[in-house]
Design goal:
The complex is a heterodimer of chains A (169) and B (212). Helices cover 20% and strands 33% of the residues of chain A. Chain A contains three helices and ten strands, in the order H-E-E-E-E-E-H-E-H-E-E-E-E. Chain A has helices spanning 3-6, 74-87, 117-131, and strands at 10-13, 19-22, 27-34, 38-44, 50-55, 95-101, 136-141, 147-151, 158-162, 165-168. A five-stranded mixed β-sheet of chain A has the order 1-3-8-9-10, with no helix packed on it. In chain A, strands 2-5-4-6-7 form a five-stranded mixed β-sheet, with helices on one face. In chain A, helix 2 (74-87) packs across helix 3 (117-131). The longest helix of chain A is centred in the C-terminal third of the chain and has 15 residues, at 117-131. Chain A is globular. Chain B is an alpha+beta fold. Chain B has one domain: Chemotaxis protein chec. Chain B has five helices and nine strands. In chain B, helix 1 (23-43) runs antiparallel to helix 3. The termini of chain B are far apart. The mean pLDDT of chain B is 83. The chains are: A alpha+beta (169), B alpha+beta (212). Chain A binds chain B through residues 12, 15-24, 27, 29, 32-37, 56-57, 62-65, 68-69, 71-72, 80-81, 84, 88, 103, 105-108, 111-112, 114, 117, 145-148, 161, and chain B through 1-7, 11, 13, 59-63, 68-70, 77, 79, 87, 149, 152, 154, 156-164, 166-168, 170-174.
């Protein structure tokens, strides 16, 4: 039995374009309904601090607006969550990184970049993590189905539910 | 430590509901009536639009619009172009989708219990009719020219289905225009639907500016 499963946990939803962080072992950070969006989960095994980002778009440079929420972009959310985790006592050398999502929800494709946004989100998240010297421990990405991603700060466990099936990442 | 929303929980985009007598509310009402009339024609029963709610909501609300993010839904996705470009997404709960499929196929209520090819085809056709009637009425009111694509149906959890629209909204801002309305038939069936109309330039689109 894992540490988290012994505790009565409080689900903390991480909505579109949000980034949440906690070190409370009774919390579980949850990104519900990831379609083309990508969930980025980072946990520090020593500080036992966890963060989950719900990324919608790959790059802030492509935005037509400058004063909108920066955390919806992969290239802004990933560095921000690393900064915040380090501020909370975490260290990059101990970070365990897992990602999920990036599905292509519409199969028609071709008509618009919107149809291909999932794979571009995944690519950008991977690039940002690599640029910052972080390796992805495990991932469940692409495909055509939605996912719900949960991160348990108590033990760093990440689960992904998709098409009625729950698996540990 | 209390879970932290970063960088600040104080950042919140606008959230408001358009009054029914406002230009936007009236335009949506006319467009909703056009959809109800079309739905009545194809289902063979009088249908009226009811409980119209037109709101500007923060992007974070999108995946819970009309229900829970993990609820299974049928979403019909259409694009339009012309004076404005953008998308329409119609979202039905599974129960609503079964009901609508029965109406579309002239079957007794309760006949459809799973989404086979025939039911999905009927729902896609409903999206075609509903989307085009809505947009035609809205284009007439705002005096713009719009062409609409054929719909694509997807069956998935609500949050994932709506991520398609979320990506389009997020590109232009952090708020979206939500139109929720019920289509009530004379025999009491309620074909409630969530309709999202997302012009590529959001509230700055030609049609929204003409209603301002």
């Amino acid at each position: 039995m894992t540490v988290a499963s012994k505790l009565k946990v409080t689900q903390i939803p991480v909505g579109l374009g949000e980034l949440k962080q906690t070190d409370n072992p009774k919390d579980v950070l949850v990104a519900y309904g990831l379609g083309s969006c990508v969930g980025v989960a980072i946990w520090d095994s020593n500080a036992r601090v966890a963060a989950l980002a719900h990324v919608i778009l790959p790059q802030s440079a492509a935005s037509s607006r400058r004063n909108d929420n920066p955390l919806k972009y992969a290239d802004r959310a990933v560095p921000a969550m690393i900064n915040e985790l380090e501020r909370a006592g975490g260290h990059k050398s101990r970070f365990i990184v897992r990602i999920a999502g990036g599905a292509q929800m519409l199969r028609a494709g071709g008509a618009s970049e919107i149809f291909n946004i999932g794979s571009r989100n995944v690519d950008q998240v991977r690039q940002e993590l690599a640029r910052l010297g972080l390796r992805i421990s495990s991932e469940d990405v692409l495909g055509h189905q939605g996912r719900t991603m949960s991160l348990y700060p108590a033990d760093g466990r990440v689960t992904v539910k998709s098409a009625g099936t729950l698996k540990e990442l | 430590m209390v879970p932290r929303l970063l960088p600040s929980e104080s950042i919140s985009p606008p959230r408001f509901t358009f009054a029914s007598e406002s230009p936007v509310g009236q335009a949506m009402s006319v467009a909703g009536d056009a959809v109800a009339a079309a739905l009545g024609e194809i289902s063979g029963a009088a249908v009226r639009a009811d409980n119209l709610n037109v709101s500007m909501l923060p992007l974070t609300d999108l995946t819970t619009l009309g229900g829970l993010p993990e609820d299974e839904v049928v979403a019909l996705f259409l694009t339009f172009n012309g004076t404005d470009d953008g998308q329409i997404m119609l979202v039905y709960s599974m129960e609503q989708a079964f009901m609508l499929a029965d109406q579309m196929l002239w079957q007794p209520p309760g006949t459809t219990t799973e989404l086979d090819e025939m039911a999905l085809s009927a729902l896609t056709e409903s999206g075609n009719i509903l989307g085009s009637h809505f947009l035609t009425a809205f284009a007439d009111i705002t005096n713009v020219e719009l062409d609409i694509s054929t719909p694509e149906a997807l069956v998935d959890i609500r949050g994932a289905a709506l991520s398609v629209t979320a990506a389009a909204v997020a590109h232009y801002g952090d708020s979206f225009l939500s139109i929720q309305l019920d289509f009530v038939s004379e025999d009491g069936l309620n074909l409630g639907a969530t309709l999202l109309v997302v012009p590529d330039e959001g509230m700055q689109s030609t049609m929204m500016r003409r209603l301002a």
